[in-house]
Amino acid sequence: MQSLISVIVNYHNGEKYLERCIKSIISQEYKNFEIIAWDNASTDNSKKIIEKFKEPKIRYFRHPIKENLYKARNRAIEKSSGQLIAFLDSDDWWEENYLSSREKHFRDTNIDFFYSNTNIFYEKKRKKKLYRNFSLPHGKIFSDLVKDYFIIISGTIFKKELFEKYGKFNEDYSIIGDYDFIMKISKYCNAHVNNLPLLNYRVHENNFLKLHSKLYYEEYKDWFDKNVKENDDYFKKYINLLKNKLGYIEILSLIENEEKNISILIKIFKHKVLIEKIKLLILFFLPKNLFIFLRK
């Protein structure tokens, strides 16, 4: 018997991309799923798009007041019935074998969560690019994620018991709640990976992270201060690496959000990773209207 998968689609005013997202779930080769469509106080035609499907697998919920993304994700988890929880953001979509490609492993007690490679779809250019062009790791992948965080929430499937054992998403965060959760569980839990790009992640002008680089830095610094300790066996080997990452994110935020000045330039010259230092210098001297386009 197939495991039931609850696919959580959180959105606020998602009408532009929602139809393709939902179609990609309904057309999955793997059929034992429900869709938790969590409408976070939309004021557009999102509900009409959901109703148009007339699909019994869709369970529609609407919260009357717009909430933090991770509070909305947690509310949706509470409504789920599946043994497995998958997430798909409304502007992304799956290949039809996204679920079926891992089916034989869903009941494996040695596997706790699943992820795949991704195609990054640049909407403006109408082009796709493979997210990672190397073999992705499996098992306990914490040390790999510290060095290079390569997981996208729309490409993950979790056993529901993980949220019961380790807690749900941290609702204090608006951007890095998935990063915080996955870094936490990857210390103890085993990942299964499919290296095929089964997720299509859309990059467009309204991506939340692109519009809130300062908040991203503030949240990442909060996470760093609370988690990265010299006496922590998991982090102590990577403290300098993570400090460099924090510094890089801070400088990106300053270049984008502050008036360019000598203090930012000094921070760039003090940055220890040469290739990042060169990139930051280029971005510093670019006009601001080119910054977001090129910093990716």
Instruction: State Rg.
Output: 20 Å
Number of helices: 12
Helicity level: 25-40%
**SSE-based structural type:** alpha/beta
Give the overall average pLDDT: 93
Low-confidence stretches: 292-296
In percent, how much strand structure appears in the residues? 15-25%
Number of strands: 9
C-alpha geometry: globular
Order of helices and strands: EHEHEHEEEEHEHHEHHHHHH
Q: What's the story with the biggest beta sheet?
A: 9 strands, mixed
How many angstroms does the end-to-end distance come to? 43 Å
Could you characterize the architecture of this molecule?
It is a single chain. Helix content is 39%, strand content 20%. It is α/β, with parallel strands linked by helices. Strands 1, 2, 3, 4, 5, 6, 7, 8 and 9 form a nine-stranded mixed β-sheet that branches. It starts with a strand and ends with a helix.
Keywords summarizing the entry:
about 300 residues; alpha/beta; 9-stranded mixed sheet; 9 strands; globular; disordered C terminus
Topology:
Elements: E1 5-11, H1 18-26, E2 33-40, H2 46-53, E3 58-63, H3 69-79, E4 84-87, E5 93-94, E6 113-122, E7 127-130, H4 142-147, E8 156-159, H5 161-166, H6 177-185, E9 191-203, H7 208-211, H8 213-227, H9 239-257, H10 262-270, H11 274-285, H12 288-295
Parallel strand pairs: 1-2, 1-4, 2-3, 6-9
Antiparallel strand pairs: 4-8, 5-9, 6-7, 6-8
Helix pairs in contact: 8-9, 9-11, 10-11
